Amino acid sequence: PDLSCGLRQNRSLKKLVIKNFKDRPKLSENYTEDTWLKLRGAVNAIQNSTSIKYNLEELYQAVENLCSYKVSPTLYKQLRQVCEDHVQAQIYLFREYPFTIISLDNLSFLKRMNRCWQDHCRQTIMIRSIFLFLDRTYVLQNSLLPSIWDTGLELFRTHIVSDTAVQKRTVDGILEQIERERNGETVDRSLLRSLLGMLSDLQVYKEAFEEKFLNETNRLYAAEGQRLMQERDVPEYLHHVARRLEEENDRIVSYLDQSTQKPLISCVEKQLLGEHMTAVLHKGLSTLLDENRVTELALLYQLFSKVKGGLPILLQFWREYIKSFGSEIVCTPEKDKDMVQELLDFKDKMDNVAHNCFAHNEGFINAMKEAFETFINKRPNKPAELIAKYVDSKLRAGNKEATEEELERILDKIMIIFRFIHECGAAFTSKLEGMFKDMELSKDIMIQFKQYMQNQSDPSNIELTVNILTMGYWPSYTPMEVHLPTEMVKLQEVFKLFYLGKHSGRKLQWQPTLGHAVLKAEFKEGKKEVQVSLFQTLVLLMFNEGEEFSIEEIRTASGIEEGELRRTLQSLACGKARVLNKTPRGKDVEDGDRFNFNMDFKHKLFRIKINQIQMKETVEEQVSTTERVFQDRQYQIDAAVVRIMKMRKTLSHNLLVSELYNQLKFPVKPGDLKKRIESLIDRDYMERDKETPNQYHYVA
């Protein structure tokens, strides 16, 4: 404001002087001396903050008159000397100041320095406004001469700030105030902004202040990082680091020079993060991921991305965590029952972290895929076997457990997990793809069947949904003949006529073990719907015809195989939802047991799902599944052997086996490789060396 006011005042003065230029008298030596004394008196008045005796317009005109008569060099030197004498005298304000270490005294020292600086700036602006003509003519024409403003800065720098004791006291006082603020105290930021602006204007900011400031910052945060890493948990520590960075950025905006930003922030990041990256990850990454602390994980990524080498080490720990956690799921036999679901949940969780916390970083996404591929293949065959069974169970259940859209999403996720398994065999893969294709085609067929049923003269009250499963894609199911109600048999025939009319030459084989139904039932509590298997349906429908039946009577009427019937009755009479009563009571179904409909059944839901009790998989079935997987893989082994022998022509048994292990992406036993080699020899793809039996030759 002072400067702009002075400039406005001088512009009006200049117009007035130029207007009267022709009327000026010739200058004499006495005039020159008297005029200088008048000007010096005005400068002294400004420096001493007293009133000026002369009109500013008159003073400005006097300067212009002197400049017009070649007195500019002398006038410039005299002005500089007067200003220098005054500034030199100011140093005694600080040298005589009591240098005690009391905080108040230090603060008072800073305030005195700031007052001195502000007074000096105001005085220089005022003096320049009087000597503006000199500044814009003589000084401007001599490039080696500093302007009046720059002269004022130079004098203050030389005689005040460059004084060793004064500079040290000033810088130490500023550093003390900043340390106090870092410790939570309130300080006068405008005072700091003014003093640091002074150092910057005087071009001593870097050498006098910044180096010491960065050293102090380095010392402070090095100690703080060591202490807090011991005292605080990782989430709390990360939030503290973020807060410290925010505070330092705020200091740059408020009073530090902008040039300090990069080295200051780098210093904080290095001491609070760079020196502790491994410790932070060892101490807290697993906990953050286990507890799904997405806010802190995002903050962790954000902070580590600022530090050199931060993201690579975070990626390394992230990969190892996935391998470790996934290996526990896959390699723990006790978890086999829930392995696939746990893998799906784990993959969902890691996907969420990669996309929402790690900024869709492609490196982290690829590392996650590599980690999944590593741990899922640690246990040969089992994951592939369990995935196949999981898919089978989901497709069997259909929309009983989930909507079509939900089922689609589940199957898509399963396919992602499935792709991590090292080549399960082309036939196995094609079977899985065939299962998905069957489900899609079945949807289209049912749309057509519903339209077909609408045009029938005798439409059924039962809504039938059929899934057409291609034999060969799906697991083999034991054929079972059961006694269906007349209405169901009639509907089956209608569908058979419809389907074979569109696909002649095909054969339909109904699989009652995969069927399910929704039944309407009336209890004392009111009407309910029960969602049950086809076997459960056949048993429950019998109680429309009678009140009580023995197990033998139910077996005869339904045609259900004995073991399956016992599990069915157990689910209806011994489970959580007991729609049948069993006499005598018990958890198992025995010969001679009798059953009646439970009219007193109660449930909070309107539609109740009653699960069929599943027969546990036998050891023989597990072995059979493993054998089928190997049968699919043997074609891959054969192709690899032929490919290697065609390229090498002649190879020893050990080298051939070694090459096979390098090329095959799934685990295989040496004995199985030997069998495949023998098979290829029998089929004349290769032959043994007549003199060295362990050496093979390719047969073109």
Automatic annotation (TrEMBL):
Residues 369-573 form the Cullin family profile domain. It comes from the Eukaryota. GO terms for cellular component: cullin-RING ubiquitin ligase complex. One of its GO terms (biological process) is protein ubiquitination. SUPFAM superfamilies: Cullin homology domain, Cullin repeat-like, Winged helix' DNA-binding domain. The keyword Ubl conjugation applies. Keywords: Isopeptide bond, Ubl conjugation, Ubl conjugation pathway. InterPro entries: Cullin, Cullin-like_AB, Cullin_CS, Cullin_homology, Cullin_homology_sf, Cullin_N, Cullin_neddylation_domain, Cullin_repeat-like_dom_sf. GO terms for molecular function: ubiquitin protein ligase binding. It holds the Pfam family Cullin_Nedd8. Pathway: Protein modification; protein ubiquitination. Transmembrane segments: none annotated. Belongs to the cullin family. This is Cullin 4A. It comes from Neogobius melanostomus (round goby).
